[in-house]
Amino acid sequence: MQQAKVVEVSAAVLQRPDGSFLLAQRPSDKIWAGYWEFPGGKVEPGETAHHALVRELREELGIEVKTAYPWLTRVFTYPHATVRLNFFRVTAWSGEPHPHEGQQFSWQHPTEVSVAPVLPANAPILRALELPSLYAISNAAEVGVEEFLRRLEAALLNGLRLVQVREKNLSRNELRELAQRVAALAHAHGAKVLLNGDVALAQEVGADGVQLTAAQLVELRERPDAEWCAASCHNMEELRRAEALGCDFALLSPVMPTKSHPGAPHLGWEKFTAIAAGSSIPVYALGGLTHDDMQTAWQHGAHGLALLRQAW
To answer: Which residues form the Nudix hydrolase domain (predicted)?
Structure first.
């Protein structure tokens, strides 16, 4: 049986500084008429996905792309075709989007999408857009529990919205108490909390999800019962496994040399890009990085940064 040809498509997540993004309604003369989607179109022969993105947004919206970061790639099979959607986050452009093809536009927020129906392939993209650029990993063992909680509250007041509790040196009772306090503090500020490695304890303390270790990725046959599920990955095989398991996002590390593992091998940005390229789930860059590396991470296909010491 001949394998169906995959249609390459470039899709744009036009993002304004407030986090809102643009959706367009498909016109009446196209298949799936009336459905909402991210702007974009087919990659023509000889084009790169980025070139197609720039051309499509010029033709469809009348804007000129200034800054576009490679983001996610999702393959979706519709009854009429299988498409590979190459998503870019477009953060800067010139001109005001206006319909060149008679379509309707609407600026939306990830947690409050008010238009329907949305094309089926885009549902995971809307969920991924809920994730902030910074993922902070706890460091109570090094700075002390009370000092860590003080720094956590300051970070939450400054906009931190995603936290992982990862404390390998605490007893389970100590970890339970810390995780409960972190969850209460984070939830009061509208932030999400994931607990490293322990699904049962994550549920017990009211965390929003679990961060799976690389070892757990190999062992698990199905996604844990958690609202949010992330995975710690170090190579292509582990990232593919995280995707297959249905994880919402992944950490890929170490990108650079780290204080905790001096002299250990690290990926570097080139290898990070090669592994993250084509991922269907957001990938955070971790290891030896600072807040100043955010734009570099975006340029290399990362959703954002995961920081340990530098987060606090």
So the answer is: 4-133
Place of tokens 């389970």: 172
Q: Which domain holds residue 95?
A: 6-128
Residue 197: count other Cβ atoms within 10 Å of its Cβ: 17
Report the C-alpha gap between 198 and 216 in whole angstroms. Answer: 10
DSSP 49-111: HHHHHHHHHHHHH--EEEEEEEEEEEEEE-SS-EEEEEEEEEEEEES----SSS--EEEE-TT
Residues 289, 208 within the same domain: yes
* Residue burial 215-226, b: 16+ Cβ < 10 Å; e: rest: ebbeebeeebeb
pLDDT in tens, 217-270: 999 999 999 999 999 999 999 999 999 999 999 999 999 998 877 777 899 999
pTM assigned to the model: 0.95
DSSP SS3 for 118: strand
